[in-house]
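TODO from last week: model ATP phosphoribosyltransferase.
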Amino acid sequence: MLLKIALPNKGRLSDEVRELFNEAGLEVKARGERALTASLGGEFEAIFVRAQDIPEFVADGAAHAGVTGWDLVSESGRELDHLMDLEFGKCRLVVAAREESGISGADDVRNGSRVASCFPRLTQAFFDKRGQKVTVVPVSGAAEIAPHLGIADIVVDLTSTGSTLKMNGLREVATVLESSARLVACGSNTPDAQRKLEELKLALGSVLAARGKRYLMANVPKSSLQQVREVLPGLNGPTVVDVLNGGNFVAVHAVVPSKTIYRTVNALKALGCEGILVTRIERLMA
């Protein structure tokens, strides 16, 4: 039986999800750009729906699992099994007020304030928990314009950098929720389905673990080995291998952060290392 995985049908999140699945060996093979389903490496079947509908599809059992934003999962209120954080699509759901409002924190929001948001459930829960009585005004988009039109006093909206809020004369005063893309599953899946989903987690996780990493190999003078160990800590320390007819050299292999590879290579050269090779890593299983 093919497991059905609900994936976003469009947008940046859709692009990033497809890239991740492709890198994990679960190539998205659809009959056309508008296809509603696609094969995922023969093990799973993708169904393409709106990101905001994915929690419902998964909770109702129409899909065994799905990938969507944690903000949408939380807003849905549906009970789902959280399998893993995919570490992209990061954003925050924040309370924002007009610069001239005098509101600098959530405590400054007065009872009776009107709050515009595309996330009415989370917004209401946030203020209820704080004991603040507000009127939530549901909107379908562009919440940041609401204070300027007199529709609401403040907004609760998503932001990643805060630039859109600032552009519209708003400033963040509190964080309601931090979000990213998550793999979630139906709680009533069979043991066989759960086993296959664990395999899916392993495949996706190995790709995520490899991102931002490089595999480095170098011939290292034995006299410099201790200093090289400090330069190349690796996951559990560098791997040291004797080189056939290597004389005073040994081969050292290590996984290193890609963002510091330039400094790492220079440090190794300064210690007399030779034959330095750096390669990309497709998957990494610790």
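Done. The first strand starts at residue 3 and ends at 8.
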